[in-house]
Amino acid sequence: MTTIIKGNIIHAPELGRLDILPGGHLVLEDGVIQAISQALPKEYAGLPVTDYGDKLILQSFADCHLHGSQYPFLGTGMDVTLLDWLQKYAFPVEKRFADVNYARMVYRQLAEELIANGTTRVIMFSSLHADGTLVLMEELERAGISGYVGKVNMDRNGSDELHETTEESISETLRWLDHCGQFRSVKPILTPRFTPSCTDELMAWLGKTSRERDLYVHSHLSENDREIAWVHQLHPGCERYWETYAKFGLWKDHTVMAHCVYSDETERKAMREHNVMAVHCPDSNVNVRSGIAPVRRMLEEGNWVSLGSDIAGGAHLSMLEVMTCAIRSSKLKSTEDGTQPLNAAEAYYLGTTAGHRYFGAGKGFAIGDRLHAVVVDDSRLCSVGEMSLSDRLERALYRVSRQEIKAVYAEGKLVKCS
Amino acid sequence: MTTIIKGNIIHAPELGRLDILPGGHLVLEDGVIQAISQALPKEYAGLPVTDYGDKLILQSFADCHLHGSQYPFLGTGMDVTLLDWLQKYAFPVEKRFADVNYARMVYRQLAEELIANGTTRVIMFSSLHADGTLVLMEELERAGISGYVGKVNMDRNGSDELHETTEESISETLRWLDHCGQFRSVKPILTPRFTPSCTDELMAWLGKTSRERDLYVHSHLSENDREIAWVHQLHPGCERYWETYAKFGLWKDHTVMAHCVYSDETERKAMREHNVMAVHCPDSNVNVRSGIAPVRRMLEEGNWVSLGSDIAGGAHLSMLEVMTCAIRSSKLKSTEDGTQPLNAAEAYYLGTTAGHRYFGAGKGFAIGDRLHAVVVDDSRLCSVGEMSLSDRLERALYRVSRQEIKAVYAEGKLVKCS
């Protein structure tokens, strides 16, 4: 089946580079991009065109770090720092996901809100609960979202009410993995919460399982100073935080590490050497007072950096807002270390291409990829008059909300239209 | 005429204090608050009640510093710092307001968007143009917004295209003032752009006019290091920026000074001694890379601090978003100077009561004041289940957008209902 869509196409094949096609065409066969060009290629002449007129056709967004089980308290609990925040807010809510009906209700709403905001790919923590995690995967797939989702492992330093033994953690992880074959676009990812949450025995088992079953790994790294001190205490033999993952075989190609606020040169080098993706979560890092990650430096050094909402440490589910948070944070960082702030084109790349790459996608709207796109109607927004499309992209980052997102394509299919 | 409204009332009579009445009543006579109480006072029994059910009834918002003429480029131009930003973005757009038709179109849309976002009181820069300023005042009044609006004075250091002579500045200010009597809820305020924009002669005339006509003053103070150095150069006799206003009689009761990022103890003391209001513009200060104002310190010292969107240096027109920006900035400042970050109740106070005070309003919803309120439907937002009203207030700050604002009352009248 051939689908042709037309509109003002703006995509970001490289960091800092926008490819812009005013009134351009995207041609799909069964959802796979065949052509992207200003004029419609001759061989498709006469076929029906979905014409989005003056609207913007942007890449959809990849949210590379968020916690599904924290969605219920999104926008609250902003009064403490990370470790207290886990005990006071995150753990008490997460334990409720033992109830699959509660999980169903929350995750259905979350999936709907993600799609409405143009997020079509996610890398997500669920909770400790295998069944709840399967519910999350079902609801994401139902909404048309692709993703890597993890049952969280935590056999130490939880709370009285949120805890699993090492044996439970292993057997429940295995039971969860046994049921993941049913999903087409949502895949399992191994998810130790963070080093302080997992015994060496569990970490070693996760490393082995990751290797044997060819599974990726998702966790947290160097987010907060108290956390880092704690990790050093737990692993006195490891000079740096990343080594506590490496020593159990969890530091490898496509390992996802959220935050990296305090990752120094050595840790950043270890990321590059193993193709570990750093996920910058600028809103969360400000809200729970962790600090500001050295994003420009990581990019200059060649690190793979994408963006995450990190709800509910982050208060913005919309990746557009996360992108502008990244710009704001980079400006504050620039006064500290003299680096160049991110611009709109760069933030857009980080929230799209850099994250979609995790899923094997190419650069920008790439031929051979299934289409992941959002259609934005920015006509409501006040304008100077004639605005360039790159200015309209910048304005979209700062001003567009779900109301302006008129259509969403995920895996080549139209999954939302309003 | 008696109006009774019922809902979950949350107001902030003091910094850090929330008064909460679940299912409470507000009784108005001709828009003026007669009673605020949990149960409906007996003498009003039997009268019709507008029942907002489980919705929140919050104070509406006061935006104490914004630039009407910068609305057309809101959300763009985020790549430079203050002085370059003025030349590259602000001045070229501002000059277009010589055209009253353009001004009408832009200001009508701005007024609509302000009300839709629950902002019912403003202190606003217009442009250099007397006629455009009158259009802005008309459009605000038509939308139901109260405010102080100023024709901008700038007889030096503008651009080739945006400039006025001292004589023009004076005569156009007089002509503008002559036409301001027609407005009921929108009043003129004298508005030298900032010290570098005005000659001593113009500043002296503005000071004299302020005294003779009993007019308030609105300008910028200590926003950016290059700006401050420039002011020192222009006024070598003044040790601090504020003195350049004081020496011309512009530093006095109800003078509004935006930013105050670098106001030191002495400058802050001078504000307190003269009842000068500092307007904290957290989003703008990050976007144009000015810095972070020492808000907690100012509050501890007893300064009068309110909030401003400062569009288009700020990208958020919604004061709810400005409030959470203030919280975020205070957290970043806290790691620098050890001060306590703002909490949600405090940010709400700064965006409401602290600003409404400029207009003579009392504390929170105060008996004898005309009602300024917004009605928020937060039922769409995911919830833990039973949430306290103070948690719902915090969540509203972080998550409510215009779609959730179902009704707006300004000057005692229902001005928006959806």
Give the secondary structure arrangement, pairings included.
The structure is a homodimer of 418-residue chains.
Chain A: E1 2-14, E2 17-29, E3 32-37, E4 50-59, E5 61-67, H1 82-94, H2 100-116, E6 119-125, H3 130-143, E7 146-150, E8 152-153, H4 166-178, E9 186-188, E10 191-192, H5 200-213, E11 218-221, H6 225-234, H7 241-246, E12 256-259, H8 265-274, E13 277-280, H9 282-287, H10 295-301, E14 304-307, H11 319-337, H12 344-351, H13 353-356, E15 373-376, H14 389-399, E16 405-410, E17 413-417
Parallel strand pairs in A: 1-4, 5-6, 6-7, 7-9, 8-10, 11-12, 12-13, 13-14
Antiparallel strand pairs in A: 1-2, 2-3, 4-15, 15-16, 16-17
Question: Can you give me a brief rundown of this structure?
Answer:
Chain A has 418 residues and is an alpha/beta fold.
Report on the architecture of this protein.
The structure is a homodimer of 418-residue chains. Chain A is α/β, with parallel strands linked by helices. The first copy, chain A, has 14 helices and 17 strands. Chain A has a 7-stranded mixed sheet with strand order 3-2-1-4-15-16-17. A 4-stranded parallel sheet of chain A has the order 5-6-7-9. In chain A, helix 11 (319-337) packs across helix 12. The longest helix of chain A has 19 residues, at 319-337. The model of chain A has no long low-confidence stretch (mean pLDDT 97). Chains A and B meet through helix 2, helix 9, helix 11 and helix 14 of A and helix 2, helix 9, helix 11 and helix 14 of B.
